Amino acid sequence: MSRADRYDLVIVGMGSGGMVAATFAASLPLRVAVVERDRVGGECLWTGCVPSKALLASAKVAHTLRHAERWGVPASTGAVDTAAVWARIKAVQAEIAATDDNPRHFEHLGVEVITGEARLAGPHAVVVGERILWTRFVLLCTGSRPAAPPIEGLAEHGFLTNETVFSLDRAPASLVMIGGGPIAIELAQAMVRLGVPTTVLERGETILAREEPELVRTLGGLLEDEGVVLGTGVEVERVSVEGATKVVHGTSNGTSRRWCGAEILVATGRAPNLEALGLDTAGVQATRSGVVVDDRMRTSLPWVYAAGDVAGGPLFTHAAGHQAVRAVRDMFFPGRGRVSELVPWCTFTDPELAHVGLTAAEARKHHGSAVEVHRLDLSHSDRARAEGHREGAVVVVTAGGTVVGGHILAPAAGEMIHELAVAVRDEVTLAGLASLIHVYPTLATSVGQLGADAAFAAAGRWAPLVRAGRLWDRLAHRRPRSSSSRRG
After folding, report:
1. CATH number, span 3-145+271-332
2. Chosen CATH of 351-460 out of 3.30.390.30, 2.40.50.140, 3.90.190.20, 3.30.40.10
3. Are the C-beta atoms of residues 135 and 7 closer than 8 Å to each other?
4. CB–CB of 170/86 below 8 Å?
5. Strand (E) positions, 70-226?
6. Does the structure show a pLDDT above 80 at 338?
7. What is the DSSP letter of 228?
8. Angle CA(134)–CA(140)–CA(145) in degrees, nearest 5?
9. pTM confidence score
């Protein structure tokens, strides 16, 4: 066996987690190989974060132009050429693929990039084609894929997912979306803003079920005002085709319904990419949710780790990167790679909906009557009013005065949530946030204002002492009467 086939670390999958892990491992330095069966960049670059955010950016511009009179500027009501929007999406992807996500970038770091399908093949061995890679450790970062529900006629008549919608040349003429999670809601708003009639069908009682309900209600109203048709309590039964139209049949709160569109997009969850890894043969424990790992991302084999979507848990790019770095750290600095359970996230609608820690309901379940919910509407934010985006609010959940959850519906909420994430992690009181001077005028000033309100309320409890102090001050400074004025 040649030295070229011996490594300190073999990373399987070159998506968000794999790229971050490779960069970190190369800096230690270690002999590292990464195996990728498709394209470097993974789901985030090619079918997820990058194309969806490029789409959202174009849709926001179209929406702003259409409603420009809100800012004293003449509106533009022209139709959007979605072919040009899709061309821009592909151009953004190509730019990233040619620079930061280019295989040569990682090769310059000293990482060997191998194209092919990787399979665990015995102790410390990974097979890629005809090669056997001997390695001290393996990190699985193979990600996930859209999961399609078993609906009669769905596979037969075809459907889109986030993996295929961006491979089109332009947007469909109209859409029916099955699923009401973040992927569906982001895409639905973008499509409507680009002139594509869109209906969202959600089985549950609400869209975005993991979010703070009052903010979801506000966001849902905004989406409906823009033209998104939201259906909840929907049980999809079958799919048929009538001419060039696809028809979704089902019930809505018990009533038979049908929904029609040029295309159907399914966004009902994701499944980990496990099948080709040889986990059973190697003895790596896994479930339908993903590879089973501990808080250091170790699998049931001490030399195999997993991170990101393939390991279940929070299905976010930033979570995958964090887990992957901690896994590499634990491999070579044992016991130093524990993963944080606190993962903030954001649904990138307009306005954005960001989340960290517990919702109010979750907090009450864990902390009972000690929970308080503090809310400040953006209608009280000078910056929001000046920019014409006063929809939304900041909600902070406390238990015994300590911040345990934060939820923001606002433009750039994803940028704002990190202050509250630090507050949750470090067990900061809401009043303690008031001690940080916030730049004015910013939307983040609302966080400081909530903290100030809590501090003022706490100070108000000392009002009797303040009044007593004033009385003492008056008594202490009264001028005594002269002896000549005393009565005899």
Report:
1. 3.50.50.60
2. 3.30.390.30
3. yes
4. yes
5. 112-115, 118-120, 125-128, 131-140, 144-146, 175-178, 198-201
6. yes
7. -
8. 140
9. 0.91
